[in-house]
Amino acid sequence: MTTTKAKTATKAAPKAASVKQDVTGFSSLEMPAAFREMAEKGAMQAKEAYDSYKSLAEEATDAMEDTFATINKGATDFQSKALGAAKANFNAGFDFVEKMLGVKSLAEVVELQTEFARKQFDTLAAQAKEIQDLASKVQAETAKPFNDGVAKAMTQWKAAF
Question: What pLDDT sits at residue 145?
């Protein structure tokens, strides 16, 4: 009679989770289907969020690489322009000194000096304008990939959430 009562008691108890014994002899609880579905949905959402953030990070990295490449090119162009201007100015100075060595009168010295100063002023003004235009161009080209990348990332981020 004891065995019949034990069987009845076991059958009457609600089954919240079944217990299984694995190969190692340890017991493990089997998760109810609702919890498993909720866990799978959470894992799927976490993976989607990770993929979205990974994509955004890759986009940002690409934008930064483009920005640095543009900065590098701009710096090279700027350096080339500055060295060209310096070379032209040194050559003009040496030409001036060479002409001064051949003068025969004070009037000729004043004339050469005035002509050299006027040419150098015009040359320096033109060089400064060229360098300023180049600097503006480099600044605009440098900001463009970064701004475009940030705008694209923000659009994707807003769409993802």
Answer: 76
Distance from C-alpha of 135 to C-alpha of 133, rounded to nearest angstrom: 5
Hey, what long-range contacts does 88-91 have (CB within 8 A, 24 or more apart)? 88/123, 88/127, 89/120, 89/123, 89/124, 89/127
Question: Count of domains in the chain?
Answer: 1
Angle at 85 between CA 84 and CA 90, to 5 degrees: 100
pLDDT at 93: 94
pLDDT of residue 90: 94
Q: Is 107 domain-assigned?
A: yes
Q: For residue 148, what is the enclosing H or E element? A: helix 106-160
The predicted model scores a pTM of 0.57
The residues near 131 (Cβ < 8 Å, ≥ 6 apart) are 78, 81, 82, 85
Range of the domain at 110: 55-161
| Three-state secondary structure string covering 125-144 | HHHHHHHHHHHHHHHHHHHH
* Per-position DSSP letters for 74-106, written without gaps between them: HHHHHHHHHHHHHHHHHHHHHHHHHHHHT--SH
pLDDT tens for each residue of 48-86: 888 878 877 887 788 788 888 888 998 899 899 999 999
Question: For residue 19, what are the β-bridge partners?
Answer: 29
